[in-house]
Specification:
Layout: H1 5-8, H2 14-18, H3 22-31, E1 38-41, H4 47-59, E2 63-67, E3 69-70, E4 73-74, H5 82-94, E5 95-96, E6 101-109, E7 115-123, E8 131-132, E9 138-141, E10 144-147, H6 150-163, H7 180-189, H8 195-201, E11 205-208, E12 211-214, H9 216-222, E13 235-240, E14 253-259, H10 263-281, H11 298-311, E15 321-325, E16 329-335, H12 356-384, E17 391-394, E18 398-404, H13 407-413, H14 421-430, E19 432-433, H15 435-442, H16 446-458, E20 462-465, E21 475-478
Parallel strand pairs: 1-2, 13-15
Antiparallel strand pairs: 2-7, 3-4, 5-8, 6-7, 9-10, 11-12, 13-14, 15-16, 16-18, 17-18, 19-21, 20-21
Helix pairs in contact: 4-5, 9-12, 10-11, 11-12, 15-16
């Protein structure tokens, strides 16, 4: 049996490893990049270090730890002696509460050419927070095991209360609510031989009072009609005429589509619709002239939608993901603020899944590229297209990511200090700004903000509107004919 390299790269359970040809298995474990779900460690590692890794994986999204491969070499564990027994007892002796896991010894040939074994540890994502025996809390973030401070650990405990929601039974749902075609495709995708066991291992089917039923994650990813139980689980796409949102008699909504069904179908439908809508919605080309092609890279807007669907808060009833297309930007709003460890200032380097079971199942179904490369590549793709960085803003109960398509925004940013994207997003959206608003958006003193505004005025990118410089009703208006293209 032969597996595509991309599929093999997502192997993340012992059961999947057993399906790989023996001659290929060790090579996959030796060469696979370390990531959110995979780590290699030396045969000399201590039980305490292994326990810390187990805590980090359990507090995040689960995954595999391979002991006995290090630095690209297959060391094997035959010479580890008493360490092997200590590794096997690490969860019980050195983690609190004990991390749920599975151990598997895998035969191999070590770097010296001798018969040997490696140890594979499969960690389950936990609904609670684990610590090591010293009380330290770790979290798997990308390819790192990060030790959390006291405040971060407290926030993780709070967010774990949220993350447990996708692993709870979907009230009123039965196994008949799962789509057999989607289930079969999913089971084939992960190369599982035990259908029921695979769904249970991924937390997509749970048992309550002796009855098997879909979890919230299972219903959202594999359900026939998830909205029957979770009516808020939808994506709404809106296309506007112009660069602003009007209401009432002046409403400028051109198209309004609500996408329902399981999450994979919602994302696919959004991708198809936006590919059709974008040329009509965003017409400014890189030269500043109107053209037929969108300038926002597909990866950037698709990543924003995938992240919104996967990482939103599903416990907030009555709210949906909202994708709005204007002539100069795309805005994606999702229910729920950033999870506790993630801040706008560290969003490129910090990862935390509010819904770990949904995230893993979507990764299994081929959305791993969007989720794995994530926000950091959004920034890279926007920069490569000559556009401003994505702008993240938080409201009381939601997160909005805005992708600016107007090259003028990039020209303005070139004359402002790093971190000015929120100011530019507001200016491009409204066309005007007061000095007080600029102070708040820049996060600087009033004299400093005025210095930035006057610099843009000198470049003919802004003009002051008012009876005098001190007019309390005065404001700054965007000028599109400025000469700010020169540095």
């Amino acid at each position: 049996m032969c597996y595509p390299l991309g599929t093999v790269g997502r192997v993340s359970t012992v059961q999947q490893l057993r399906l790989l040809p023996q001659g290929r298995l060790i090579e996959v474990l030796r060469t696979r990049p370390e990531d959110q779900w995979f780590e290699r460690t030396s045969a000399r590692t201590t039980a305490r270090h292994l326990a810390d890794l187990m805590v980090g994986f359990a507090n995040a999204e689960g995954g595999l730890i391979v002991v006995g491969i290090h630095g690209g070499q297959v060391e094997g564990i035959a010479g580890a002696g008493r360490l092997v027994n200590e590794w096997r007892q690490a969860a019980l002796d050195l983690t609190e509460p004990p991390v749920r896991h599975r151990l598997e010894s895998v035969p191999c040939t070590n770097a010296a050419g001798d018969r040997d074994e490696i140890l594979v540890v499969e960690i389950e994502s936990s609904e609670g927070v684990h610590t090591n025996s010293r009380g330290d809390t770790y979290l798997r973030v990308g390819d790192e095991n990060r030790r959390l401070g006291v405040v971060e650990a407290q926030e993780l405990r709070f967010d774990k209360g949220q993350s447990a929601f996708d692993g709870t039974v979907a009230d009123g749902a039965t196994l008949a609510d799962l789509d057999p075609e989607l289930v079969d495709r999913y089971v084939r995708r992960i190369h599982a031989t035990d259908r029921d066991g695979a769904l249970a291992a991924r937390g997509l089917v749970v048992t309550r009072r002796g009855r098997h039923a879909p979890s919230v994650a299972g219903l959202l990813v594999l359900g026939r009609d998830p909205q029957r139980i979770l009516p808020q689980a939808s994506v709404r796409l809106l296309l506007y005429a112009g660069a602003s949102r009007e209401t009432g008699a002046r409403s400028n909504v051109l198209r309004d589509r609500r996408l329902e069904g399981p999450l994979p179908r919602q994302v696919d439908a959004a991708r198809r619709l936006l590919r059709r809508w974008l040329p009509a919605a965003i017409r400014l080309g890189p030269s500043g002239r109107f053209g037929p092609s969108p300038v926002i890279p597909q990866f950037a807007w698709l990543e924003a939608i995938v992240n919104a669907a996967v990482h939103r808060s599903y416990s907030l009833g009555g709210d949906h993901v909202r994708v709005e297309l204007f002539e100069d930007r795309i805005a994606v709003e999702s229910p729920g603020r950033l999870p506790g460890l993630v801040r706008i200032e560290n969003i490129r380097s910090t990862r935390f899944a509010r819904n770990p079971r949904i995230a893993r199942a979507m990764n299994d179904l081929g959305f791993g590229r969007e989720l794995g490369e994530g926000v950091n590549r959004m920034f890279q793709e926007m920069e490569r297209a000559g556009l401003p960085d994505p702008v993240f803003t938080q409201g009381p109960a939601s997160l909005v990511v805005t992708l600016l398509a107007d090259p003028l925004a990039g020209r303005i940013l070139r004359h402002l200090p790093p971190g000015s994207e929120r100011f530019v997003e507001f200016l491009m959206r409204t066309g005007r700004i007061t000095t007080t608003q600029a102070v708040d958006l820049f996060g600087v003193s009033r004299p400093t903000a005025l210095g930035y505004l006057h610099q843009l005025e000198t470049l003919d990118l802004l003009e002051h509107v008012g009876t005098s410089a001190k007019d309390p009703r005065g404001f700054w208006r965007l000028r599109r004919g400025g000469r700010g293209g020169t540095s």
